[in-house]
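hey so u asked for the seq, here:
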Amino acid sequence: MTEKQCDTHERSVRSDKMLFNSFGYLFFMIIVFMVYWLSPHRFRWILLLGFSCWFYMCWEPVYILLIMGVTAVSYAGARFVYDQKKKTVKKAVFIVSCLLILSLLFFFKYFNFVSDNVIGILRKFSIPAQPVTLRVLLPVGISFYTFQSLSYLIDVYKQKIEPEKHFGYYALYVSFFPQLVAGPIERSQDLIPQLKSEKIFRCEQAMGGVSWILAGLFKKIVISNTIAKAVDLVYGNLTSYSGGVLIIATTLFAIQIYCDFSGYSDIALGSAKLMGIELSHNFECPYLSDSVSDFWRRWHISLSRWLRDYIYIPLGGSRVSKARVVFNRMVTFFVSGLWHGAAWTYVIWGCLHGLYLTAEDWIYRAFHLRRDGKRRIWKVLLTFILVDFAWIFFRAENLSDAVYVITHMFEGAADPLAYILRTLRTPHVLSKWGAVMLTVEFAIFGVLEYICYRYHDYGQYLERKGKLYAYLFRALLLTAIVIFCTKNASGEFIYFQF
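ran it, structure tokens below
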């Protein structure tokens, strides 16, 4: 983990009890599964709400008050604005409710960032000022459940949906444990009806959930955590490396963060499936995208849609002047970067993607290119290179480290043969045995990606192949997880810090 991430986590909540890749969560999920299906339907929402609260309290008990506060404000605010006839009062209550929720997010996540930057500006003008730094724990998942609550409030205010009358079901919608910590960001109209409907246990659906969980654990424990060691070694001591090693480390990080985050999403989706609940798919093979716009239709889909529906479109979307479209796009990706973390490296990462999309749009217009053309390998490769370059800012501890990577990654490239040989001879990045094992892991990972790309669901794919194939598939993943579990199981998911 980077210094930047550690600085965030210095105020962040830590607990190994409920990490998705922990034995604590395994036992928790077994208990939830058994109690849920053995209980009558009318009691299930109470049990799930209780388990969700317990899950969150395992991270830091006191912060259950925070999520309860967000739930109460968004619930009461939505009920009031929906019933209120006076537009001025309705708008005022809506704004106050949103500001209360956003103020909590600002206080815990952005106060120190804003304070440091304001102090820095004042000192540049020789104005004496003392920094104000809050030493508070960053609540896990606060960015996710605040955005989820805000989308509900906005939809009710715009009368796209009716407010949920049952406070218990709404509280469960906000705090539902599989997607509480790192999404997906669900819409109330998609999740609440599922929480209310009576479920009948189906073995096929449960085994499908197990398949998703195993796939997610494989991505996290076997691939992401293995790669993390090499990436952390290089990015944790950048001045000791240059040339192709920096390119390899950055490319590996692109794979690491995808396997880490999509692995979490797979486990979340599988955990919900065990209770007969379907969550949104958050990834659709994003590194097979043939454009940056295509990438954002496949990467962190729930956040992309949230930003589109609640920031980009309200600003005017694409139905305004070209200059305004650029402005709308840059604001949206500025928010995307800032949402990921209170650091300028995240902001630059977000703005880079905004610039990519602006340039892409101009190229397609200027050269009259068709966006629905064939998926060419060179387009996929170019898109990956652009996305991977932006990951440098996401992973670097600070701006100076990002600049170092960019300015030193091609050092010595004037002599290509020597450049390649020096890269291969650099010690301690990946051992020969490690490279062989990583190749095998990538082969299995490639199969998982192919299944997702072609069939979109591990469970449905395995049903088609038959029981024997399904057992072998799960046994292969489980064996790999067990082999790597002793040395790779620990480690938070990257997106837990957001």
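The chain is about 70% helix and 0% strand. Residues 13 and 33 are 26 Å apart (CA to CA).
lmk if thats what u needed
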